[in-house]
Design goal:
Strand order of the largest sheet: 1-7-4-5-6
Mean pLDDT: 85
Strand content: 15-25%
Distance between the termini: 9 Å
Structural class: mainly beta
Oligomer: single chain
């Protein structure tokens, strides 16, 4: 049986904190739901060496998630992180009130693009592309989201 870990930051904690008792980052490989290795370890996950793309960022049933060129577009993945996996600093909301907010027009979430396309004026990283215009489902859908987030197998 595989252990799955959700990839979502909560202030002030990073998204994946695979540390042992000595504070050292454990060297865990990261897999998708079909047991395809997408990163050799957490450092690899946050580097250009990761294997996250539309074909490997699968849903809980092992199916491809619709991307920017599909209808409906669901490529925004809730993360709340910067590209390096750390929580977005500062007082601005990047996690929809630590993933508890869903009020129309209030708060924001940082999202990444699982298909690595779409943001014409900024980054298109799998875990960091832009903020949403609010936390309600309609706010997420307006910019290509469906409230989805990454879960990775770690063993």
């Amino acid at each position: 049986m595989r252990n799955f870990v959700a990839y979502e930051a909560a202030k002030p904690v990073a998204a994946l904190d695979f540390k042992d008792g000595d504070g050292q980052v454990r060297s865990l490989a990261v897999f998708n739901g079909k047991v395809v290795e997408i990163a050799a370890n957490v450092a690899d996950l946050h580097s250009d060496n990761n294997k996250i793309n539309k074909e490997t960022a699968l849903d809980e049933k092992g199916m491809v998630v619709p991307g920017r060129v599909d209808t409906p577009n669901k490529h925004d993945m809730l993360t709340g992180t910067q590209h390096d996996g750390t929580a977005v600093p500062g007082p601005d909301d990047a996690t929809c009130s630590n993933w508890t907010g869903s009020t129309d027009g209030q708060g924001n979430a940082v999202v990444g693009h699982h298909d690595l396309i779409g943001n014409t004026q900024g980054p298109n990283f799998w875990n960091y592309s832009h903020k949403t215009p609010g936390c309600a489902p309609a706010n997420l859908q307006r910019v290509g989201g469906a409230g989805l987030f990454y879960c990775f197998a770690t063993n």
